[in-house]
Amino acid sequence: MWLHRHAAKLSERVSKVTQIIDAAAVAHTSSKTDRLLIERAVMQLQIEWDAFVRKLILDSALGNFSDSSGRVYSQLPRPPRSRGEASRVLIAQYKKKSVEPDWYDTAQAIDAAGKLKLSNYGKIAGVLGVTPWLINDLRWVRNFIAHPSERSALKIRGFGIVPAASQIDVVACALDYDSTGQPRYKTWGGFISLVGWQLIK
Prior knowledge:
By secondary structure, the protein is mainly α. The chain has one domain. It is built from nine helices and two strands, in the order ααββααααααα. It has helices spanning 4-25, 32-60, 83-92, 106-115, 121-128, 136-146, 150-158, 170-175, 184-199; strands at 65-67, 70-72. A two-stranded antiparallel ribbon has the order 1-2. Helix 6 runs antiparallel to helix 7 (150-158).
């Protein structure tokens, strides 16, 4: 089986999510429904990315998948045979926690690939280790939507998305133009799809 299918599914789903924001953005200033759609779509972008990274790393350990360079596999003495087993093998290697890593955290994802001794570890570490990481701000916008708090507000302001004295409007955060010259949500979606394909080349 090909890891390409994970990247293709990611790109397809991200495209659908950004289209939802495209449509809702037209009326967002006057429609609570459209604002809610945009907020949910922003959260979904993060969810799609997390799910992709999880599947990519756990499935890479099974020996049943290939990327553009050939078959990928775990070099552990007893490689896992299913995604669920790969998860259990990974969790067993943590000393202070009993859950999977936070897949949105690139350092934790790279560490997970190392713990599973993946043959494509170098590629995963190289791609996920790039800077700047253009969806760091997506993570904190998503967190503020789900858990509005002083801490999550400080994170958004820390990225310079919202001035220190301004009220946080997550819809505006998503729709505002960034340094690339396009709405921030399009940067997020484009970066997610691009990195997804780079990971399986």
